[in-house]
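Quick entry, no commentary yet.
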Amino acid sequence: MKAAILNEMGRSRPYANSKPLVVEDVSLDPPGAGELLIKIKATGLCHSDLSVINGDRPRPMPMILGHETAGEVQECGAGVTDLKPGDHVVLAFVPSCGSCIPCMEGRPALCEPGARANAAGTLLSGARRLRFSEASLYHHIGVSGYAEYAVVSRRSAIKIDYSLPAHEAALFGCAVVTGVGAVVNTAKVPAGSSVAVVGLGGVGLSALLAANLVGAVEVIAVDSNPDKLQVASRLGATRTVRAGADAVKEVRDLSGGGVDFAFEMASSVAALQLAFDITKRGGTTVTGSLPHPDDRFSVPAVQLAAEERTLKGTYLGSCVPIRDIPRFIALYQQGKLPVNKLLSEILSLEELNEGFDRLADGKSIRQVMTIP
């Protein structure tokens, strides 16, 4: 099959010239016990992939990236009886074992064996099924969707409605579960709340859509990119604020002293500081960022107690994928969660480097690679 291999992190931009992703003919072993062979239909370009390309999120190399993926089951490994060839699936980027403490507590996004496998670049079983010139390649968070096919753990696959186009279905594998889940699962935003979203990529705008869905009365969109602020207005932001020196004062003035809930989705410590500073006394700040591991964030300790402030992280939107992906899709199909409006470009496998230039420059919302 053909796949885009990342051989090393940190190549200079523009990626259209340095070409960190190289399309090669790659060998893929058959699925093992508890695994699936998936024909890839569509995979989104996400900041989490970019952060591996630029070195902010170190991973073992060489690796096939891509994790926001929809496809079709081609073959089931031994022991897989609840899916069959022809089933359509969205892939979750945390394969949940189902038996560790977080999984049994209903928090599969924090699955411990899944986290270890993702960090090691293997499938949940510990195996690697990808090879190039007989050398093993690493899997990206259990998916490796920038390819024509993938072998994944059954624990990574969520069956979905056949009628949903693949380029739309892929969004539910990361942008939607993370952004919408942050609002409805992590923060549990009640109707009538005031909300701000800092960072208006696919995840941030998904959070904005969710804030409207749950009945927030004030939804303030914050970004440094004026084009993204215009998109946010079209998607239902009640106010927009250009990120910068005066942003904190402007948001606090607009919201009467700060918002009830601020969501930071920009993968930037400065953006997280802004989100914390625009949250009111007694309010909640939620971050879905994945900045470089060396980055640090600090707040006056007394502020947490004296103002009863809450600072929370969200990963995979605190979702239970088998529950949440189908219900988020149902909300989309009913017109209540118009995530199709996040789509900006459709790309081929060979156009990924140019696509990541656009993502790094903030010139797109959600690009999706499709395989005919």
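second:
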Amino acid sequence: MAEPTIAAGYPKALLVYAVSRGADRQTLLQRSGLASPDLSEPDARIPLSHYVALFEAASALCDAPALALQFGEAVRMQDISIVGLICEVAETAAEVGRQLNRYARLVVDEGGPADMVRARPGPGGLWMEVVSEAYSANPPLIEAELARLVCNTRATFGSDPAFQAMRFPIAAHFTHAEPAWRGEYERIFNAPLVFGSDRNALLLDPGFPQLRQPPTNGYAFGVLSERADALLRELEAATTVRARVERQLMPVLHTGDANVDPIAAHLGLSRRTLQRKLSAEGTSFEKVLDELRQKLAMHYLSGKKVSANETAYLVGFSEPAAFSRAFKRWTGASPGQYRARG
């Protein structure tokens, strides 16, 4: 199964936040296996493992073990993801949950349709559980997103008398063991905490789903939904073996280690089976690699933010001369000529 991916807006926001806390940007990128161009488009896909590695690097470089919680507290989902913008213009709290699930794959794509959250009645109120396996397997993601949800909700409904009459949340449960920074959990959630639970969840007042958000913009909701639906279609279309190979190649391209054997292993295939499946789609590993390098090189150079030598490195060429020859074969022009007219 292909590795889960996350929208690039998330690691981009975490990178900016960690730098604001004193971490060195280049060291963060190196330790997480990311490159700046990977984060240029918020809706692009990044392997989830790189986002997790970025949390680890950021916590270490900032000497802040509770950084994931603090990142969730400080940065709104609306500033990270189109899904956050859609939730902001939903009419009710219940509708926010429905939109989170409708567009869950635009946040974390685990390879197919899957809900992000689930609401179900329980003793003492309504449980809102995080059901995404990718989140549950990575405590920093749970910390960041539940802290973000709580802080965002308080900011959104803070002036609503009905919300003010509620305790929010009533309790917070986490499947991971209690960390040394429990005090930060207590400060942010301001609710009874349970660690080592059977769920990652918030216990809410039964009346919470009926809360209405401040007046919403129906036109904005339509425009954002149309864009999000288009992004979903792109994800759903990217189920070919070629697309899966490209997703595996993207994070390792700049290392020069874009070889067929490790890519096949990541996909759970033998080298021969991978080549056979690509052949059935009318291509080969070598052709996919070459065309991906061409597409990315043209993208980097046309943006004029990256030099020809930097582009050569980013697409996996150790020698600028070899990159120049390949680029001329692709386009009929040298990298410098293409960049100048782009």
